[in-house]
């Protein structure tokens, strides 16, 4: 038979467990609604940025305005280097880089990782095919409404196609990495076909 103090302690533990359970439910709901968070939409002006970037382990500064002088830019945000989904996505973009280049496009990945981490990631997972930029202070992801849940310090998995006039052509947000290349490529091909008319 439980004593009075044991009963009070059990009630307190149950109350704490309920609060933790409720917090988990809220977090799960927030994660499920990630795709519904605001992102820049087609027609919006793409915010200018420059950031340290790594291509094949070599550091330089990526400037959006400079890249747009050469053609469209495929800008993709990803949560963290060397995580499973981000590795899959980097491999997919690396495999597609030549197709993007044939359309005159530059690919740039952005995360909150530091440049030392990205030096390794750019060689191993990006296969030295495209640059990845360090957004350590989170200013770029904030400007592009690409923060995961707005509070975690990580980017959401959001991809943009930006045309040379600094306009957002296409936006796609999904934590599943599988369709980002396919969707941005299709948007870019359609835009390119319209430019030739």
Give an account of the 3D structure.
- The protein has 197 residues and is α/β, with parallel strands linked by helices.
- The protein has two domains: 1-32; 39-195, Glutaredoxin, CATH 3.40.30.
- The chain has helices at 4-32, 64-68, 84-102, 115-124, 139-143, 180-195; strands at residues 50-55, 58-63, 73-77, 106-111, 131-134, 158-162, 168-173.
- Strands 2-1-5-4-3-6-7 form a seven-stranded mixed sheet.
- It is globular, with a radius of gyration of 21 Å.
- Mean pLDDT is 85; it is low at 1-36.
Task: Walk me through the topology.
Blueprint: H1 4-32, E1 50-55, E2 58-63, H2 64-68, E3 73-77, H3 84-102, E4 106-111, H4 115-124, E5 131-134, H5 139-143, E6 158-162, E7 168-173, H6 180-195
What attributes does this structure have?
197 residues; alpha/beta; Glutaredoxin; 2 domains; 6 helices
Structural Rg: 21 Å
In the sheet with the most strands, the strands line up as: 2-1-5-4-3-6-7
Mean pLDDT level: 85
CATH topology of the largest domain: Glutaredoxin
Q: Can you give the helix content as a percent range?
A: 40-55%
- Total domain modules: 2
**CATH-scheme architecture of the largest domain:** 3-Layer(aba) Sandwich
Major sheet details: 7 strands, mixed
Number of strands: 7
CATH C-level class of the largest domain is Alpha Beta
Uncertain stretches of 5 or more adjacent residues? 1-36
């Amino acid at each position: 038979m439980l004593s009075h103090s044991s009963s009070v302690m059990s009630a307190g533990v149950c109350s704490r467990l309920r609060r933790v359970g409720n917090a988990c439910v809220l977090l799960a709901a927030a994660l499920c609604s990630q795709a519904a968070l605001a992102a820049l939409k087609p027609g919006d002006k793409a915010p200018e940025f420059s950031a340290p970037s790594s291509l094949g382990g070599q550091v330089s500064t990526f400037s959006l305005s400079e890249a747009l002088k050469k053609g469209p830019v495929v800008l993709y945000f990803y949560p963290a280097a060397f995580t499973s989904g981000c590795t899959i996505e980097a491999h997919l973009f690396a495999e597609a880089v030549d197709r993007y280049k044939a359309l005159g496009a530059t690919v740039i990945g952005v995360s909150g990782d530091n440049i030392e981490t990205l030096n390794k990631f750019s060689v191993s997972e990006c296969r030295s095919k495209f640059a990845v930029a360090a957004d350590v202070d989170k200013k770029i992801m904030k400007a592009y409404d690409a923060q995961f849940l707005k509070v975690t310090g990580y980017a959401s998995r959001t991809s943009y196609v930006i045309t040379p006039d600094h306009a957002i052509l296409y936006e796609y947000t999904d934590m599943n990495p599988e369709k980002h290349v396919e969707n941005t490529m299709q948007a870019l091909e359609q835009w390119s076909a319209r430019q030739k008319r």
